[in-house]
# Entry
Amino acid sequence: MNKQDYRDMWVSIEQEGGRIHPVSLELLCEARKLADAAGEKLCAVTVGELPEEELEKIRGCGTDRLLHVTGSGYEPFNVDAYTHLFTELCRKYRPTAVFVGGTIQGRDFAPRFACRLPTGCTSDATELVYDPRTGDIEFIEPAVGGKMMAVITVPVMRPQVGTIRPGTFRYAPTGPRPWEIVEEHIDFPLEQIRTRVLDFTPNEDDDSLNIAEAEVIVCVGNAVRADSLPKYRELARKLGGKLACTRPVFDRGLLPFQLVIGQSGAVVKPRLLFSFGVSGAVNHVTGITDAEKIVAVNKDPEAAIFHYSDYGIVGDMDETCEALLRQLEG
Ligand SMILES: Cc1cc2nc3c(=O)[nH]c(=O)nc-3n(C[C@H](O)[C@H](O)[C@H](O)COP(=O)(O)OP(=O)(O)OC[C@H]3O[C@@H](n4cnc5c(N)ncnc54)[C@H](O)[C@@H]3O)c2cc1C
# Structure
């Protein structure tokens, strides 16, 4: 394989009912920077139809090319058709990299088409860096229980495939550029689809579980007592925010997994984050680095969370929470 034969960075655009999944736009914005650094073009791959205003969002991220695929077998999503599609497209166009949202769908088909090509696929990077020396992308992510940051590259094969979780990067469109639209028609034989949708139950999670977009978050760590939870919930309510937690709080069965912040949970970007009884392990902190202001409360003055916080309170979490509630009542 000659790496020079491969050009341009791709982002797979995930959509549902004509609306683009936010992760696809976040990835376009981040891949735009990488493509600029590499002197390559940024290409969005869409399957099926999208309304004009959604296409404008793709264009607004500085996309140079839209690869628009039509054909049978893609609706509803099934992994056989998508694996086949991306295998065929990559063989034909030879991109240097393909970024896929780390959603249920993306995690399903990305490693499969990478394996079929074959090439390398990395998952859950929290940072992407272009190395001009090698032309490789460094996929950086916490490893060994958060004790170190692993730099993963695909040094020999192309394309470099990666899935990145929603919320990892910011949606910060740089504005439209002149773009070209390339049409592709690839049918996938329906009889080769090995899965069948038997039933569909819409996600009925209530909105309090959607912490990724919350402007204010009150996060409780492992030090929280079960009988103290209502006061943190109350504080979150009074601040117009949402309650969240570290993973051990979920492991103890106190709060649902959707409220976990960190490497294996949600990445959040609130304007204000209160952190109570949280040690500051890397696996958790990777989920809060985009918070604008962090106020941490911990009884241990050496706790790592203080390295990441704008304001630190050394003290008991319950007492501090009660004092804040009193202030807000007064
Ligand atoms: C692959 C992998 C992925 C992971 N993903 C995640 C993830 O997504 N999210 C996540 O959170 N974790 C994750 N973890 C776990 C992570 O490594 C840490 O174990 C976890 O974040 C620690 O949670 P904690 O800080 O709440 O608890 P602890 O480490 O137990 O810390 C509790 C803190 O509370 C303080 N404290 C105790 N009593 C009080 C009090 N009365 N008042 C004030 N402070 C007090 C203590 O000083 C201590 O700093 C992951 C681990 C692995 C291996």
User: Anything to note?
Assistant: The chain is about 25% helix and 25% strand. Residues 37 and 130 are 7 Å apart (CA to CA).
